[in-house]
Amino acid sequence: MSSLLEQLIEAFRILPGVGQKTAQRMAYHVLEREREGGRRLAAVLADAVERVGHCERCRDFSEAPVCATCASQARDRHQLCVVESPADRLAIEQATGYRGLYFVLQGRLSPLDGIGPREIGLDRLAQRLAEGEVHELIVATNPTVEGEATAHYLAQIARQHSVRPSRLAHGVPLGGELEYVDRGTLSHAFGSRSEME
Amino acid sequence: MSSLLEQLIEAFRILPGVGQKTAQRMAYHVLEREREGGRRLAAVLADAVERVGHCERCRDFSEAPVCATCASQARDRHQLCVVESPADRLAIEQATGYRGLYFVLQGRLSPLDGIGPREIGLDRLAQRLAEGEVHELIVATNPTVEGEATAHYLAQIARQHSVRPSRLAHGVPLGGELEYVDRGTLSHAFGSRSEME
Hints:
Chains A, B: InterPro entries: DNA_Rcmb_RecR, Rcmb_RecR, Rcmb_RecR_Znf, TOPRIM_dom, TOPRIM_RecR. Chain A has 8 helices and 6 strands, in the order αααββαβαβαβαβα. By secondary structure, chain A is an alpha/beta fold. The first copy, chain A, folds into 2 domains: about 5-50, Helicase, Ruva Protein, domain 3; about 60-165, 3-Layer(aba) Sandwich (Dna Topoisomerase Vi A Subunit, Chain: A, domain 2), CATH 3.40.1360.10. A 4-stranded parallel beta sheet of chain A has the order 4-3-5-6. A two-stranded antiparallel ribbon of chain A has the order 1-2. In chain A, helix 7 links the parallel strand 5 (about 135-140) and strand 6. The N and C termini of chain A lie far apart (about 70 Å).
């Protein structure tokens, strides 16, 4: 096997969920059938790792100092949705009709890993709430232990600045069958039941 | 979402088995945690698509005109193993103690797709058998309809040049349970049973 090929297989392994076998398949596939696409991927990737930084308003990925969403005049500046990651932000943007702005923590509070409020940009968030433009802080951190702790902290900050905090609803997923829903979710959904009209 | 990020997600989709969601995850992962690895992948990939060609002896991938295996003095030049793809060649090299040489078809006979003997290098293979160095042609094409047709064709070429053709054994996989083996394999294994000593 050629040494450059070995290097290519090894290099593919940085991708998430890609082990030795998949990396091999990727390398062979590109060399056999996708040289043009491979050339393009190499160029875009080299460009992106150098030039994609973070938006100084929302901390999402952005080439420009301020991302397109934050710069847009069409978005409602009174609502701010806080998410843990760019992927979460994208999921909400694609699934909902939300027209407000976002704030991307790029993480969650995790004192044991040395991730405190500063590391996830909460000083900057507090500053922003102090400006008075935001009326509602939509807390969309993940429903994990760390995400919940972060949510509580965010709610506190919001109240300190007289901003109304809200939280995504948790419960049985649509189309899910009760039988297969995990106990924690089912228990929460049962406790949070609402009256039918 | 930044446009360079969108381009990166799109570029990742050339990889086998990578759809929109996985491409997103890859792009975010590289930008969040693997910029150095991403830089390296971009460089190696750009290099590989330009410089990795095919060995002129065995048609496997190689940077040099003749690959390391074909150039090696330690390999047995009397045995030649024919495989469909570089991945098949690697699988045999890693799983068996085979010390002979290889010939990589980079495909299989498929007249309907316009893939005839020339396209998979059989003219070059015949030439090589005519040189008289090879004594055994080990036919390791896949046990599919096209792979079997290719195997028969290869056996004919071998016999024309007084080379002994052989074929990998087919049957029940080791560790497999009869109950779960497909009918074709089971039927073949039953028909090809051998006497126990």
